[in-house]
Amino acid sequence: MAKKDDFSAALKPAAPDGATILANERARSSIPVEDFSRYLLTPQYLDKQDRILKVLENDPLFKKTNQANLARPDRYKLALARGKRIRQLKEKLGWSEEDYHMAAALCDDVLPYHLHTAMFITTVCQQGSEGQKAYWMPKLESWEVIGAYAQTELGHGSNVRGLELEARWDPKTKEFVLHSPHLTASKWWNGSMGRTANHVIAVAQLLLPVSGPGPETKYKNYGPHPFIVQIRDMKTQQPPKSILVGDIGPKYGYDSMDNGYLLFNQHRVPHGAMLAGYSRVNPDTGEYIKPKNPEVVYGTMTHVRARLVMEARLALARAVTVAVRYLSIRRQFKDQDAPSNTALETNVLDYPTVQFRILPLLATTFALHYSGKAMGELYERTRKDIEKSGDFATLAELHSTSSGLKSLCTDISANGIETCRRAMGGHGFGGGSGLVQLNNNYLSKPTVEGDNYMITQQVARYLIKKVRELAQTVKSRATTRTEENLKRFLYSKDKTLNLNVLKNNEDIVQAFEWRSAYLSFKAYEKREIQKKPWNSLLIDFYRLSRAHSQSILVQNFHAALETSHDLPSPQTREVLWDLFRLFALSTMETEAREFYSCGAVSNEELDAVTADVFELMQRIRPHAVRLVDSWAIPDFLLNSALGRYDGKVYEELFEMAHRQNPLNEVTFNPDYRTDELVLGSGDGGHILSKL
Amino acid sequence: MAKKDDFSAALKPAAPDGATILANERARSSIPVEDFSRYLLTPQYLDKQDRILKVLENDPLFKKTNQANLARPDRYKLALARGKRIRQLKEKLGWSEEDYHMAAALCDDVLPYHLHTAMFITTVCQQGSEGQKAYWMPKLESWEVIGAYAQTELGHGSNVRGLELEARWDPKTKEFVLHSPHLTASKWWNGSMGRTANHVIAVAQLLLPVSGPGPETKYKNYGPHPFIVQIRDMKTQQPPKSILVGDIGPKYGYDSMDNGYLLFNQHRVPHGAMLAGYSRVNPDTGEYIKPKNPEVVYGTMTHVRARLVMEARLALARAVTVAVRYLSIRRQFKDQDAPSNTALETNVLDYPTVQFRILPLLATTFALHYSGKAMGELYERTRKDIEKSGDFATLAELHSTSSGLKSLCTDISANGIETCRRAMGGHGFGGGSGLVQLNNNYLSKPTVEGDNYMITQQVARYLIKKVRELAQTVKSRATTRTEENLKRFLYSKDKTLNLNVLKNNEDIVQAFEWRSAYLSFKAYEKREIQKKPWNSLLIDFYRLSRAHSQSILVQNFHAALETSHDLPSPQTREVLWDLFRLFALSTMETEAREFYSCGAVSNEELDAVTADVFELMQRIRPHAVRLVDSWAIPDFLLNSALGRYDGKVYEELFEMAHRQNPLNEVTFNPDYRTDELVLGSGDGGHILSKL
Q: Which end of chain A is more exposed for a tag (fewer CB within 10 A), N or C?
């Protein structure tokens, strides 16, 4: 951009400026930010972040200044170049896999190679036979082969059994014939497939002949199976005639990603294309050989969901960091009850209407953190049990918990980001918020990896099963916290507890668990005793899953504070307990009727919760800036004028508008009498000229 | 785009296709769609829509196919060209003002000329003196002068009194000196100002000298006043040296609009620049002459807010149209309780988890409609009362009602659009939803024209005043429905009503009004008896405004159905009553605790509401497609593959991806070993090359 030397250079924001205000805010609290960051994120994580950050900050390719102005094809190309550069840096600087992921996270683009690293390699590794792995893995790891994961179709997303793509075994040639019988069989949404990948894992219905060859051949469907298929020429990147593949076009977010479509027309692949680590087809007899251990695959999906809780916490922490810093700086309206000589307008974060939107979300970042950690530990324990002793006992619990938390936590964060954005008023709508791309991308999360409504059925199914076991066994063994809780509820004589949630943190946890148990028994009764249709209960199941997952968040938060002996200061511990109570009680307030109906908390006690929530917000308010500082999110990642660590909000907003905005560089004639349409000559022009 | 002749041409979606399904859906109901549309929208509106639509559909400039792919500068230029074309068409075809607005609405771009037509001309017309109007109006109406409205600043939005731009009167030269003392005084966000306008209305603090000239001159601040200022040369479009102006850069939405910034450095304008229809400065004495009738200006702001209810209804109707049509077509998962030979998967709109998100929103479109109509009538009545007899009696009620409804209805629609989007799963995240731009643009509404939290104070202030009047007067005159309601509450002996909301529609209305009155008295007590600080009550005020506005929506809906004698069929009336009950009871369900606490409805009755809501959804379900058809939103405006009238969802999604996507036309090398960044050569390249 043109350097501009004009009178704006001498102007400063009206006093007090953002830097002064944030310094004052930081002086109000003695939370030891660096120690607390290390406690939350580990020193290893922070060192890695610092190290990778320095590399990216010095490479102009990762400058985020103008990416929001690009035409979609250029936006994709920029991300492709960034993906290449990160991979090159990995080799050059000897980065680990974790370093690579840190670089991708800081770059903050959904990289066009993402599905190659995140799904393609993992799938071949986990579902390929030993021979397949030996053949493919070196090519995959060297990125000679770039792959995508082609499961979802135009007509089918969540319901994998409904996929239409067929893989028909031809015993004569010993090939599979991939064929899309309808338009709706087109693979759709598959990331990295639109332009980048040269191979895919195509998930297709495996059809084996049950009668002799010929036009009347009958086939038996063995359900969806994965096939590794080359879709483009390694040199020209063009597909063969029997394949149509491309990018599906612009979306709500994910501008940088080439989500694709893919159709097969009687496309033949060799016997070895079917990933044969579990089930396989005998190439000589055409016989289907069953998988030995289908539950391991199931464990992988669960891993993705478990990780989503930690991602949700970071996404929300970004938005809350921006909101807390900016709203501390922003002032608007003088307090009408203040003396008329009051000089300053009220700090926006001091308005209750702003606090009650932002501070519970600040508390939520910590709630998500502790449950994310607990999920990681549960996943590791389960994995070890399975691998070491073939013990699948905790897998069902892990699967249920991760499904429920995925649904709840991605909803909390998606809605929370938007709540932060709206609380910031006008500037929250501007590109300087740094939340535009975050929001647009994050809004995919409530849908992907299991729709947030649909997957709550898995939680309900699990809890109903647990109640059934309890109801049918005289002396059932309670091994998990969930089982213990259901048992406690069942054997409790008094079903009205009237817990003292205002005075007692244990009572808060008990209230959440009681509600979860109450709704579990109610769901069991409706489904198994009254025999109501499953689909008629989906709202009950959704509410049950929500209640159960909230109780897990509350319980993990509580347990972590009870057992954490490594907190950096007594004040930090005190503030964390306030955050625990704020999270739990503000959640309870929004769900008050259920807490009353289930007998956990009286109406009088619930009426008093609001005042307690406001008192907690008053107590937490002075620590707000230091608390968000503790998440240690670098300015480079925030990419936000409003959320800058140094508080130079207005200076940066003006800089972005006045010196970094390409729209101010182009020429055109605004006179309505002229009919010209001054086109860009690149992709923009390319698009416009096709009008 | 390249014509593609390949095997996809022969493919159809799996049966039943969308066209068949929508035909079946439409056959399930006998609502007379065309008659109902005319009843809702008037024949005049529908004729106008048809007439303008034909013109735009035949002009390639208005083709929306590729606009989402453009670089921001090209997106702006496209909208500028469209704005010019619409203005040219107006002249050529002799369009009325209403025709022009219909064209702009169907084009669906926020046009760069929008502030000229929407605010600039109106302001000069309403606030200019006769002489100023005679001078400026011909230039404005011929678009010789293109203007913007420059009020909001970098540091101040809602609080107009806090604006920093100064207009200092220089008695020697008889000029005003416009000056921005700080960076935060920069005008900011002002639409059409970034590149398009050559003039602005700049709102500045009027400073008149109170002591003699010289460096020690003291000034008195008369508050914000409007000045008409040329900011760019009429030929070169360049600003003078004492002005910095430009576009603020990309935002959450409004890509096509050049929201701007503007700084003045001791910029001099003549005495005549200050709009002098109300207050003015005597050029000879420097004396300030007060406005005669400040409330008329106040009425104009109210008009904008009143219109937002009708806009909210149309925005929501668009999203609901798309959702109802697509979710009728989409099928996913077989019913697990169905016999195993069931061929078809369940229609997504038949899942309760989808119905309870979408059908109450469908009901809400009608609730918004009747209150939008009522607001229009109240506005007209108030305007006539003021103009004809100087009677300002209903202005305060209009102002309060429009503020509360603005806050509630824009929240309902902004959240409702996103709810529709998420309910549509994966394809809801795609560009084919037609909701991306709608959502991005509409999300500004909760902030503009008064922040949705902040303006609820105006409702509370009004209701507290009404309670005070009632409390202080023995025999108060109740003229408005609000006053009657408060009076009824005050004089009611029994404060626990236990209304029968399941059986009786009047009881529903009464429950909403009772809750509103209860919260009004509670707010009055806290503020005026207990003398609590105003700011500490902001959450109470927000909840009061919400409750009051919900009661207005319910009451207007009920009154309209009671008095409508022109409904096209008995079945339509029946379905509308169901929609009324669904809107009211689903709202009641989400706010159940307040209905219980205020004594309006018992807990037992509230527990039974859920079952009633589900029954109502079952009754409304067969009419859903015809009901959205009745909003008569043309495909051209929907711009949605998912929401097409003909149901060809999958065909259109594939067409968009395979034949209309510029990313599939560009070339590049995905190999990570290459370091190339293949740039577009237009604005995209321009931006990238500056990295």
A: N
Distance in angstroms (rounded) separating the CA atoms of residues A441 and A49: 22
pTM above 0.90, yes or no: yes
Cα dihedral sign, A294-A300-A301-A306: positive
Find the Cα–Cα–Cα–Cα dihedral B619, B625, B630, B634, rounded to 10°: 160
DSSP for A123-163 reads: HHHHHS-HHHHHHHHHHHHTTSS-EEEE--BSS-SS-GGG-
Q: Which helix (H) or strand (E) holds B378?
A: helix B352-389
Q: What's the DSSP call for residue B147?
A: E
The residue type of A310 is M
Nearest to A85 by CA among A51, A110, A56: A56
**How far does A399 lie from chain B, in Å, by closest CA?**
20
Position B294 scores a pLDDT of: 57
Residue A290 CA to residue B225 CA, distance in Å, equals 81
What CATH code is carried by the domain that includes residue A286?
A: 2.40.110.10
pLDDT tens, B126-160?
899 999 999 999 999 999 999 999 999 999 887 88
Q: Are B634 and B49 in contact (CB under 8 A)?
A: yes
- Peptide bond just before A240 cis, omega within 30 deg: no
The answer to whether residue B329 sits within a structural domain is yes
* Number of compact structural domains in chain A: 2
**Residues B121, B127, B131, B132: is their CA dihedral positive or negative?**
negative
Q: Which residues of A participate in catalysis according to the annotation?
A: 449
Name the amino acid, one letter, at B285. T
Tens digit of each residue's pLDDT (9 = 90 or more) over B614-653:
999 999 999 999 999 999 999 999 999 999 999 999 999 9
Does residue B181 sit at the A interface (CB-CB below 8 Å)? yes
- Residues in contact with B249: Cβ distance below 8 Å, sequence separation at least 6, in sequence order: A68, A69, A430, A431, A432, A656, A657, A660, A661, A663
Domain span at residue B392 reads 298-628
- Residues of B with CB below 8 A from A680's CB? 71, 73-74, 77, 682-684, 686
Q: Quick one: A190 exposed, middle or buried, by C-beta within 10 A (0-12, 13-18, 19+)? A: buried
φ, ψ for residue B230, nearest 5 deg: -80, 130
Domain final residue, candidates A628, A653, A677: A628
- Report helix, strand or coil for A179: strand
CB B439 within 8 A of CB B421: yes
Q: Are A228 and A275 in contact (CB under 8 A)?
A: yes
Identify which of B606, B611, B604 has the alpha carbon closest to the alpha carbon of residue B588. B606
For residue B213, with 0-12 CB atoms within 10 Å meaning exposed, 13-18 middle and 19 or more buried, which class applies?
exposed
Q: Does the annotation count B591 as an active-site position?
A: no
Partner-chain residue, chosen from B76, B180, B435, that has the shortest CB–CB distance to A663 = B76
B80 touches chain A (CB under 8 A): yes
Whole-angstrom distance, CA of residue A531 vs CA of residue A537: 11
Give the domain CATH number at A457: 1.20.140.10
Q: How far is CA A130 from CA A127, A159, A185, A649, B48, in A?
A: 9, 30, 31, 56, 69
Residues A276 and A311 in one domain: no
Q: Per-residue pLDDT tens for B479-498?
A: 789 999 999 999 999 889 98
The answer to whether residues A265 and A124 belong to one domain is yes
| DSSP letter (8 states) at residue B119 | I
Number of other CB atoms surrounding residue A565 within 10 Å: 4
Task: Please report the ipTM that was assigned to this predicted complex.
Answer: 0.95
